[in-house]
Amino acid sequence: MTTDAELSGTVSLVTGASSGIGAATALTLAGRGAAVAVVARRADRLERLAQQIDSNGGRALVIQADVGSQEEARAAVQRTVQGLGRLDTLVNNAGVMLLGPIEGAPLEEWERMLEVNVAGLLYCAHAALPHLLRAAQDGPRGVADMVNISSVAGRVARLGSGVYNLTKHGVGAFSEALRQEVTERRVRISLVEPGAVETELASHNRPEVREQIAATFAEVERLSAQDIADAIAYIVTRPRRVAVNELLIRPTEQQR
To answer: What are the phi and psi torsion angles at 35 (to 5°)?
Structure first.
């Protein structure tokens, strides 16, 4: 890990940090000098990630939580501030993608996407906002950041991803409204919309849906989690005068 001081003295909280984009982002922000709270349900993976950060000279705080629970999301933010002293950057990365036709879909899949993709993001944003506003006033960089991870699915509705589309369109609308509310107080709200990324996200789908996803992207070289982590690091290390409001990142060969 190459460490520089761009985020020195700041604290980041990354949700969904046990794998994929979340883990890569936590490592990358730690490499830029931030202390990082890593939040997810799988404590064993978080512990390994924290050991990796610590062994490279960083500082990590492990918080096992399901952000789809209001109580656990709020407690995760509180533990971050108590354990690391402040909060300058929130990366709302936790999410699930359960695709398939709307007709006959298992309702528990819809409920889980609403719990994590929408409610979880809202719970974390609500709990973190007072701390981000404070950090923008008294923090070492004079600015704070909330980065909300959406998707190409937050721009284009497609057959077979209706409820996932709903959740990600909602993330975009919420992010823009919040941006207008707090931007004059130097809290930057950024929306990142990845296309196809090589992570375990698709693996949680039913077998027939996994087959369809694999067929759709069979000829596409997918993005890596590190590609998205690099984009997030770019956003949060801009000078105070620069706000990256929205960033759409697709694999070169992905058409839609």
So the answer is: -75, 140
Furthest-apart CA pair in the chain: how many Å? Answer: 52
Consecutive 10-residue runs of the chain (256 residues): their mean pLDDT? 72 97 98 98 97 97 98 98 98 96 96 98 98 96 98 94 97 98 98 90 77 78 95 98 97 88
CATH number of the domain that 139 lies in? 3.40.50.720
Domain count, the chain: 1
* Closest C-alpha among 83, 169, 162, 88 to residue 121: 169
The whole domain housing 131 covers: 11-246
Retrieve residue 247's tokens.
Answer: 């960033």
Query: What pTM was estimated for this model as a whole?
Result: 0.94
1 in any annotated domain = no
- Domain assignment present for 2: no
- Stated as kind and residue range, the H or E segment containing 178 is helix 162-182
| 164 assigned to active site | yes
* Catalytic residue from among 14, 141, 152, 164: 164
Residue 12 in tokens: 């980041």
